[in-house]
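User: Can you write out an input/output pair for a complex, sequences first and structure second?

Assistant: Here is one pair. Inputs:
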Amino acid sequence: MKRMILMAALVAGPALAQDDMVFDDSIVGQCVQAAADAGAAEACIGKAADDCMTRNPGGESTYGMNFCIGQEAAVWDGLLNAEYQRVMASDKEIDAQTKADGYGAPELAPALKAMQRAWIAYRDTTCTYEASQWGGGTGAGPAYAGCMMRLTAMQTLYLRDTGPF
Amino acid sequence: MNIRLFIALGLIAGPVWAAEDTPEELRAACFEMSAMMGQLAPCAGEAAQVCLEAKTGSANKGASAAVMAECFAPEAEWWDQKATAEYERVLADFQKMNAADQSEAVKAFHAAWLTYRDAKCDVAIAGFGLGAGSNLPVIICRMNESAEHAVYLSVRGK
């Protein structure tokens, strides 16, 4: 029985810790909204993860960092998706108008799609490169997660600055 | 002194004095300052601005897209070469250390970056229309992206 309890505790440990950890998913959105320009918005990157690492016991352990950074990365990923859809919808409208007007301008929507596809490969290889610099060390996990969060946020802010406003 | 010669010398000396540094020196200083700060300082394109002032008397007025392209193209080229040089330096360092994982990682990263840069800069020109007269937005986009990549490699490649 004692052994079973011990085993159960070992198995449940990380799951419990994750359930207990608090992440405020309103920080990123509020910070970006309040930012006056792209430079100020860049300062929002990492704020929610920092808050999570500070307010949770064990938040600064490798496990805690992975959790907190992963949570913030997920928030940015949602924002990025929304920005991409917004710009894509606008690009398609402009392309249709350009075609109707008879201009021979290169289309915007396929260029945006190609860029986003190239960005995904760029993001993954950048973060693999950054993680590789930790060798096999425990820092590689948080380094990869932090890189994904940073690049996803940067791409969100780049698309956010792309018209229409 | 002959007044005409004086004016002529003044005119010639003017921009040289204002610029003081050659475009090469301005760009190298920008790269070094950025590497020290750990991120691209807002100085990419400075040499192109000096070039515009020399051509038009003002960096912000009266320059046609063609003249701007003449000034920005050499700077975009310089940063492109800097990015390549930094990549080759980083790769050579990893290879010297027999760091196979890092070597492969930086190769894949640099190749993906190049594809991404060109795709991103295509977005800059899309919608402008054929015969818009200049690919200036592409030139400036490539300059900025290459500068950022060169500085990134110099900071993260040590």
